[in-house]
Amino acid sequence: MITNDSPDSVTFDEGFNSGRYRLIQVTKELAEHVRQGKTLVVRGQPKTNLCLCTDDATYRVREVETTDTLFVTNVNQVESIGTGKDYRIRAYLKTFLELTKDEMSPYLALKTLLEKYEYDLNDSNAEETISFDEVLDIIQFSEAEIRAAMERLPVVEYDALLRYLKRSFREDMLGKLVDVIDDYTIDGISTKEMDRTAMREFFSDEYPVVFIDWLHRTYALPNGTPNHKAICRDRAVELLSKENSLGITAFERKMSNLLPIGTEFDSEALKGVAIIKNTVGRGQIVEYLNVEDMPPDSKQRLEILFKVQPSWSAEDIEPYVIDFCTSKASVGAFLLKNCQSVKEGNAKVFIQKNNDF
Fold first, then answer.
1. 3-state SS of the chain?
2. Disulfide check for 181: which of 97, 205, 243, 260 has CB 3.0–4.6 Å away?
3. For domain 295-357, which CATH number applies: 1.20.1300, 3.30.67, 1.10.287, 1.10.10?
4. What CATH code would you report for 227-293?
5. Domain segments of the chain: what residues?
6. pLDDT the model gives residue 197
7. pTM for this structure?
């Protein structure tokens, strides 16, 4: 190699072995991450593509061919080029790894995995168990993204194992919490206050601390007041999963018996849990349709939704499809891609896509 300053020599290194190297194209931000000595983790399963993870971001890996020949040498500082260096080629490659940041959440993959490990405190002999480290080996996302998705699931880490709480167990815990809220002799737990310390003290003989903390995290807002919407939602699930559908009047009457005294039912709580339909014989009914029970495949889920009713407004269908979108803002694009948009009167609705055209 001849430069303007002095000649450079190029030879093959004694340990030349192209099979030992992979070149990765990275962004400036990711390059700086590496320079700072921060961790990069490669994750993958035998039948899936690799992914590269920082602490809080995930990059999908794709091998790209190039017409250039890319050399790996002993010189890796740009400013040293042209100073009479002896370049020893350690490898040459015709491909590199291209990274694409994954903006999706691991929520669905995590839910599908952890549902296999349902648990309540009576399952002392539960044979099937899984740890968080094992989840990291299976779910190909960064640790921070996985932990954030776990916050949305009924999961606790107990005895160094992850426990997906059975719905019947969750219903039992919520029922006891509602009873405590209705008991005016108990301080710190009421329709206006949901103090975590008070909950830990009251339920300490019944549940381990991690279960109590899950109960508080689920049914209390960050400011320490009750999350009435969450309480309404899960009590509605408990009722409708047994009844399937109820006339609106009967539903409201039964819900009043399930909610804390003085709590009005929040109709927003039905989103993603049930739909309100007008029928000829029964009038207005509330019909159970829980996103938690739906398949993780978008095509299968849409087929179910359009069997339930042939047309949906964007607002009504959103809770059932947002799992497949990077954000609320991308729901519209998902619907336009996977459904057909038509007019019903002055309103735009979505119907099942006709694949014959």
1. CECCCCECEEEECCCCCHHHCCCEECCHHHHHHHHCCCCCEEECCCCCCCEEECCCCEEEEEEEEEEEEEEEECCCCHHHCCCCCEEEEEEEEEEEEEEEECCCCCHHHHHHHHHHHEECCCCCCCCCCCCHHHHHHHCCCCHHHHHHHHCCCCEEEECCEEEEECHHHHHHHHHHHHHHHHCCCCCCECCCCECHHHHHHHHCCCCCHHHHHHHHHHHECCCCCECHHHHHHHHHHHHHHHHCEEEHHHHHHHHHHHCCCCCCCCHHHHCCCEEEEEECCCEEEEEECCHHHCCCCHHHHHHHHHHHCCEECHHHHHHHHHHHCCCHHHHHHHHHHHEEEEEECCEEEEEECCCCC
2. 260
3. 1.10.10
4. 3.90.1150
5. 9-101, 107-219, 227-293, 295-357
6. 97
7. 0.84
The low-confidence residues of the chain, meaning pLDDT below 70, are 1-21, 71-72, 74-88, 90, 92, 124-126, 355-357
